[in-house]
């Protein structure tokens, strides 16, 4: 237990920390443990400290007693002041509450004042509106009374004033108050309008059934007598004058003008003024010699009648509208009918133009637009006449084409050319076939053999080589401007089916037909012409070339050939001749006629006819069997006839250069159009043939089913198709054109078969025999190329087919058939001793040998000899 002094120190340290918040620095005291015995000392110390504080407070209270009394007095005074302030606040609140009531009373009084003011204003406005309504009512009553008294003008004026006043009321007071007035105004207006309209119909009577018009200046009615002048002013006030004028204009137009201008066949009218105020249209039993003049005189009479009888106010609206209606009807019907279609009607047409000018000058100043329309028509008379001529001509071509091709007829082409006397065509021991056979075109273009030797085989496309394209160029389908360089003698070559006559001096026929004139002038691309014929004789190794004498002496050879055309070319030619004759007649009349400027345009119309023929003819020809071939024949026939007519016109017409465009442009275009139609049909047939041959699939596996049946079907289909085409074309084309056309298709067939067989890498013996049978099936088509029987030739010579002349690859095709069934020795012989080398290249023969024969010493030696021989 610590000593007593230590406990006291500990108690004092605790008191100091409580009272002052400080701690003792003595370590013993700071680390001492506060025990219960020390609490007694701590309690004593705290009691002593309490007593000291109490004594200090008592002493302080005793010393500051006077100050406390002052504080108490001030507190009481403050309480009294607070009470007084509260009382004043209550009084202020009471006063404020009293002012609010006064303000509410003031607002209420102000609102009542404004309301009374608005009521006074409304009442004043209402009084004003009621006065205005009363005024309107009085005005309407007066207007109604005026109407009952028959004073239309006064009634309409008062009605107009009432409507204006009502409109003002409506703007100020809305629509409710004016609804009743509007009903009264509407009722009164209807009555006035009805009365005015009735008076109008009494003054102006139009009887459409009897074609009579009566215009009076005063009504006879005792109820409402009115003059027309006053009535027109009334209608102006009612704002219906323009409407009534339009109705009157249409009525007079339909009653008088329309029958005058749109008269039916055999009916004629003329105007009669029965009374001073009446005009009537009556039938004319004896039509006048100059009906056009009578029409314009009648129209002027109608205008004069209306101008004299109608008031100026009505004429202001009626005149221009009536003149415009007359001009419209003249333009739409009468003047169109007065335009003649032939030159014989031009004198009368010139009178019509003069009368139109005179009538235009008679129109009033308010009809300036109508007058100008007539003047423009008269100034443009030449173009109007030409336009009608063009329209009628084009419609004629359309009508002709729409009727169809008509009945085909046979025509003959005759061409005369001068050839040398010593040409083989005149050889005594030569037949017509020899003449055509020995003629050669090799001077102008390389032969097929030469082309094949100069270049290797072209790449194949769709089974067709470039030789086929060369075949197309031989038909004259190149550009129209491509010139031919062949001499005139070569044009005399035709096929043996053509009749050949020799004339030493028959130039009249040539001049009449004009054959050859255009050839010398333009040398344009010709129609299909026969190709060179190569004789198939064992002792001939190359074609003969005729011996040509350099002597200028020669003989005329007339070539005749028939073909069929439709009925259209002659009709088109007739149209062209009629147009040119009209143009010639117009050209001869001279500038005195108003339509003389149309002469040059009329000369261009035949070209326009040919243009529309080219444009729409495929539609009508396409529906016919062999329509394209008919179109080809018609175009060439029409071109030849036009050339002959142009030649005649150049020497006999008034203007030798008038048909220059037709000759230089339109006719070549027509020829090219016909050739395009021919080429289009050929291309279509050629495509069909190729599609049929595609069924053979290149003749691969042609001995195995089902490929063998497909090959048989394809080859037989081609043969049947070519025969069908021949049957369709034979009634249309000329013999030479038919042979060339079928020959071209057969060239396509043989060329594709040759290429397909050459492409076969290996051909067995059964396949070779099968291919030979296919070739023989194609060979049966030779009967299509037999010449027509001739009375001056033995029967055996007439049966020689001309297939090789018209089928470029025919000889090659025949040699291919021989190769397929020949031995190596035979093939080598044909190459070295025969003419096989003229049709095949070395590589082609070698490829065929390698495909047909197995590899052996014999095959290698044969190939070596064949290569060495070249």
From TrEMBL:
<dbReference type="GO" id="GO:0005737">
    <property type="term" value="C:cytoplasm"/>
</dbReference>
<feature type="compositionally biased region" description="Polar residues">
    <location>
        <begin position="544"/>
        <end position="555"/>
    </location>
</feature>
<feature type="coiled-coil region">
    <location>
        <begin position="46"/>
        <end position="88"/>
    </location>
</feature>
<feature type="domain" description="ZW10 C-terminal helical">
    <location>
        <begin position="714"/>
        <end position="866"/>
    </location>
</feature>
<dbReference type="GO" id="GO:0006888">
    <property type="term" value="P:endoplasmic reticulum to Golgi vesicle-mediated transport"/>
</dbReference>
<dbReference type="GO" id="GO:0007094">
    <property type="term" value="P:mitotic spindle assembly checkpoint signaling"/>
</dbReference>
<feature type="compositionally biased region" description="Acidic residues">
    <location>
        <begin position="468"/>
        <end position="482"/>
    </location>
</feature>
<feature type="compositionally biased region" description="Acidic residues">
    <location>
        <begin position="498"/>
        <end position="520"/>
    </location>
</feature>
<dbReference type="Pfam" id="PF22766">
    <property type="entry name" value="ZW10_C2"/>
</dbReference>
<protein>
    <recommendedName>
        <fullName>ZW10 C-terminal helical domain-containing protein</fullName>
    </recommendedName>
</protein>
<feature type="compositionally biased region" description="Polar residues">
    <location>
        <begin position="447"/>
        <end position="457"/>
    </location>
</feature>
<feature type="compositionally biased region" description="Acidic residues">
    <location>
        <begin position="435"/>
        <end position="446"/>
    </location>
</feature>
<feature type="compositionally biased region" description="Polar residues">
    <location>
        <begin position="523"/>
        <end position="535"/>
    </location>
</feature>
<feature type="region of interest" description="Disordered">
    <location>
        <begin position="422"/>
        <end position="556"/>
    </location>
</feature>
<dbReference type="GO" id="GO:1990423">
    <property type="term" value="C:RZZ complex"/>
</dbReference>
<dbReference type="InterPro" id="IPR046362">
    <property type="entry name" value="Zw10/DSL1_C_sf"/>
</dbReference>
<dbReference type="InterPro" id="IPR055148">
    <property type="entry name" value="ZW10_C_2"/>
</dbReference>
<keyword id="KW-0175">Coiled coil</keyword>
């Amino acid at each position: 237990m610590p000593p007593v002094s230590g406990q006291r120190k500990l108690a004092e340290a605790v008191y100091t920390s409580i009272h002052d918040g400080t701690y003792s620095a003595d370590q013993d005291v700071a680390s001492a443990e506060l025990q219960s015995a020390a609490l007694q000392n701590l309690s004593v110390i705290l009691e002593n400290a309490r007593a000291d504080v109490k004594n200090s407070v008592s002493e302080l209270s005793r010393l500051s007693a006077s100050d406390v009394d002052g504080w108490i007095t001030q507190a009481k005074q403050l309480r009294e002041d607070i009470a007084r302030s509260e009382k004043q606040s209550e009084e202020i609140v009471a006063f404020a509450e009293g002012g609010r009531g006064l303000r509410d009373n003031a607002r209420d009084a102000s609102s009542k004042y404004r309301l009374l003011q608005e009521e006074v204003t409304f009442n004043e406005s209402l009084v004003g509106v009621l006065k205005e309504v009363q005024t309107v009512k009085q005005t309407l009553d007066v207007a109604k009374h005026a109407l009952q008294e028959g004073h239309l003008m006064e009634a309409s004026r008062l009605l107009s004033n009432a409507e204006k006043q009502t409109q003002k009321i409506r703007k100020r007071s809305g629509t409710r108050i004016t609804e009743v007035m509007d009903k009264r105004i509407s009722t009164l207006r209807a009555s006035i309008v009805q009365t005015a309209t009735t008076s109008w119909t009494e003054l102006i009577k139009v009887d459409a059934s009897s074609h009579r018009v009566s215009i009076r200046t005063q009504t006879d009615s005792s109820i409402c007598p009115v003059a027309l002048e006053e009535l027109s002013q009334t209608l102006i006030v009612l704002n219906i004058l323009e409407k009534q004028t339009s109705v009157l204009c249409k009525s007079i137009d339909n009653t008088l003008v329309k029958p005058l201008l749109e008269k039916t066949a055999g009916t004629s009218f003329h105007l009669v003024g029965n009374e001073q105020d009446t005009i009537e249209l009556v039938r004319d039993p004896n039509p006048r010699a100059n009906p056009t003049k009578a029409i314009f005189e009648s129209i002027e009479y109608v205008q004069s009648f209306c101008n004299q009888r109608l008031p100026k106010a009505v004429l202001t609206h009626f005149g221009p509208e009536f003149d415009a209606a007359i001009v419209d009807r003249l333009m739409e019907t009468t003047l169109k009918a007065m335009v003649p279609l032939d030159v014989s009607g031009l004198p009368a047409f010139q009178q019509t133009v003069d009368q139109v000018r005179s009538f235009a000058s008679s129109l009033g100043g308010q009809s300036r637009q109508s007058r100008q329309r007539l003047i423009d028509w008269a100034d443009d008379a030449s173009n109007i006449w030409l336009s009608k001529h063009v329209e009628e001509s084009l419609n004629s071509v359309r009508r002709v084409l729409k009727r169809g091709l008509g009945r085909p007829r046979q025509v003959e082409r005759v061409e005369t050319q001068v050839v040398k006397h010593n040409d083989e065509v005149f050889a005594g021991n030569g037949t017509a076939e020899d003449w055509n056979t020995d003629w050669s075109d090799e001077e102008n273009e390389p032969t097929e053999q030469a082309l094949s030797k100069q270049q290797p085989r072209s790449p194949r496309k769709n089974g067709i080589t470039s030789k086929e394209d060369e075949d197309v160029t031989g038909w004259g389908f190149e550009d129209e401007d491509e010139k031919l360089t062949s001499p005139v003698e070569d044009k005399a070559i035709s096929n043996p089916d053509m009749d050949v006559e020799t004339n030493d001096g028959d130039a009249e026929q040539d001049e009449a037909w004009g054959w050859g004139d255009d050839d010398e002038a333009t040398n344009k691309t010709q129609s299909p012409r026969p190709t060179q014929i190569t004789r198939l004789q064992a002792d001939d190794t190359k074609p003969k070339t005729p011996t040509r004498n350099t002597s200028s002496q020669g003989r005329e050879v007339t070539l005749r050939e028939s073909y069929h055309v439709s009925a259209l070319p002659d009709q088109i030619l007739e149209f062209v001749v009629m147009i040119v004759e009209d143009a010639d007649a117009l050209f001869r009349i001279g500038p005195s006629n108003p339509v003389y400027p149309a002469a040059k345009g009329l000369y261009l119309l035949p070209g326009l006819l040919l243009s529309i023929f080219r444009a729409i003819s495929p539609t009508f020809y396409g529906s016919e069997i062999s329509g394209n071939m008919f179109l080809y024949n018609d175009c060439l026939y029409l071109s030849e006839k036009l050339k002959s007519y142009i030649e005649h016109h150049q020497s006999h017409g008034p203007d030798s250069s008038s048909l220059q465009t037709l000759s230089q442009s339109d006719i070549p275009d027509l020829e090219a159009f016909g050739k395009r139609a021919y080429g289009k049909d050929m291309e279509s047939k050629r495509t069909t043939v190729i599609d049929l041959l595609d069924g053979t699939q290149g003749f691969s596996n042609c001995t195995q089913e089902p490929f063998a049946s497909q090959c048989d079907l394809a080859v037989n289909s081609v043969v049947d198709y070519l025969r069908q085409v021949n049957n369709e074309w034979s009634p249309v084309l000329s013999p030479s054109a038919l042979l060339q056309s079928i020959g071209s298709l057969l060239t396509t067939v043989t060329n594709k078969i040759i290429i397909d067989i050459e492409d076969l890498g290996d051909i067995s013996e059964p396949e070779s025999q099968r291919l030979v049978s296919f070739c023989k099936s194609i060979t049966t088509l030779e009967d299509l190329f037999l010449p027509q029987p001739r009375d001056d030739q033995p029967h055996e010579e007439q049966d020689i087919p001309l297939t090789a002349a018209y089928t470029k690859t025919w000889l090659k095709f025949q040699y291919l058939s021989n190769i397929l069934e020949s031995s190596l020795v035979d093939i080598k012989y044909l190459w070295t001793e025969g003419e096989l080398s003229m049709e095949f290249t070395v590589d082609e023969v070698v490829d065929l040998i390698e495909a047909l024969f197995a590899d052996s010493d014999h095959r290698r030696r044969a190939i070596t000899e064949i290569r060495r021989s070249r």
